[in-house]
Every structure is written in C-alpha cells, then in structure tokens.
Amino acid sequence: MVKRRDRIRLSPEELKTFIEEQKSLQVATINRDGTPHMSTLWFAVVDGDIVFETYTKSQKIKNLERDDRIALLLEDGLEYDKLRGVAINGRAELHTDPAVVHRYALEVMARNNPGIDREMLSKAAESMAQKRTAVVVKAERTISWDHTKLGGSY
To answer: Taking the CA of residue 141 as centre, how many other CA atoms within 13 Å lie in the half-sphere pointing to its CB?
Structure first.
C-alpha cells in the first residue's frame, strides 16, 4: 500500500515545472525575538537555486544577517482537492557586490517581465543593485504536495 504522503509528492520534473509556473514566493525569516517574518517576493531560478533580491535595509535581510535560516513557500489551488505546493527550508547566501546583485536582479526582472527588452531590464537592474542584496537559497529540505493526484479521495 502506497502511503498518502508518497502519492501526493511531486516528482523532480513536476517540482521543476511547478516552480517555473509560480510568480510569487512566500519568504520566512526569523526576527530578533524569534518570531517569523513573512514577505512575498518575485524570484528566479539560477543554477538550480531559488534567488531573489531586496533592499539591503529590509527586515528580511537584517534577519538573514543574524540567522541564515530561511523557509520558502510556493502554492496554488483554492479548493482542497486542487491544492499544490512546495515548502523549502534552507540557508541563505547573501550577496552585496553590485555586479552579483545585478546578475540576480536581471534574472528576476526578466522572468517576471516577459516582453521587455533585456537591455532595458539590465539598466534597471544596474540601478537597483546599488541598494539591494541578492539572496541565493541553498535548499536543505524540500516538501511537495499535489492533492489532484488523490483523484478526489481522502
């Protein structure tokens, strides 16, 4: 008998496709007092890692400077039998070198603004890179689910 957990897990190819289909990424870091700090960001996948960039002075970056643990959530579906998602726990690598930030910012912008000239996006990313930090998430644990695989049975 196949366990329910195993029935709903995404295959590596399904996982890759699901992540590519998503636009927004839920990001959780740990505040100084131990409470979670949640935010939503655009992201890209570069060299197999989820990456995003944000203002260097943002709460999430301050939290990651103290504690590099990070949790991510990508999800969709409005009814139980249609729920799909991926939760990732890992460590954040922070990059402040403007050239590195530019690289990741450009990938995030290009992914989320199809149809806009890459050269134009590159100029915008260059400007953004001066006040931002890029975050590369090194996944340590990935959990996925796709309730549509249950065929309506629970």
So the answer is: 5
